[in-house]
Specification:
With 109 residues, this protein is of the alpha/beta class. Helices cover 25% and strands 33% of the residues. It has one domain: Macrophage Migration Inhibitory Factor (2-Layer Sandwich). The strands form two sheets. Strands 2-1-3-4 form a four-stranded mixed β-sheet, covered by helices on one side. Strands 5-6 form a two-stranded antiparallel ribbon. α1 packs across α2. The longest helix is centred in the middle third of the chain and has 18 residues.
Length: 109
Amino acid sequence: MPIANCLVSSKCQPGNTNLIDLWANASGQSSEQMTVTISHYDQQFGHDYEVIVNLYLPSLWSKNTISLLQTGLSKALSEHFSLPIEQVFIMTSLIDSGFVVESGEAVNW
C-alpha cells in the first residue's frame, strides 16, 4: 500500500520512464501495491520545491523499509522529472491497521 500523492510544478516535464518501475528499483521493493498520483500546481509561495509528496505507508513496516521507500521515491521522482534531488520534498504518514477502506471494507494488517 505505498501511496504517493505528488504535487508537481507545471514547469516540470516527465520523462519517458515508468515512475513505478523507477521507484521499485530504487527502493528494492515490489511494485505490486505501489500507487502514484501526480497533480500539477501553477503557483507556490515560500520555500520553492518542484515536487512535494505526501507518502502514505502502513505502520507495520520496519523503519528500514520505510526509509528505503522514501529515499527510493525521491530518487525516482528526481530521475523521472530530470530534477536535482534537492527539489523533491517528501512527507511520510504512517497509517495504522483499520484506517484504510478498500472495496467498501476496512483493511486490517
